[in-house]
Write a structure and sequence with these properties.
about 120 residues, alpha+beta, 3-stranded antiparallel sheet, two-stranded antiparallel sheet, 3 helices, 9 strands
Amino acid sequence: MPKIKGEEKVVTCDIFLMEKKGGQYVFPTGWPTYSVTGEEIYPLKEHKFGTLNVSTPNKFREILSKNFDPSWPTKMKKYNHHFGLAEVTATLEEMLPADFLPAGPFGPLADRLKD
């Protein structure tokens, strides 16, 4: 488990699937509520994510602005993750220098990369 400021933390990653409806890609659950165009997604581009190369949408900056906020390069949006228990809320917080550290694979992914 990775340590952040000397404390072990669980790292999670949310993945949301989309489906094509007309000329837009939407979330079948209705949340998040924004949509994206094929031009924003394709062609996929390759970028570094820590030590890995990953495929990203063509216009990932625009998609991040829709999802989080246009201030996403310097602020982070934190959700309460109370799905079904309370209204989902989010706050924007200034990022600290430690928040800008390169991403790294943790857990099973890190173990697979060692082989």
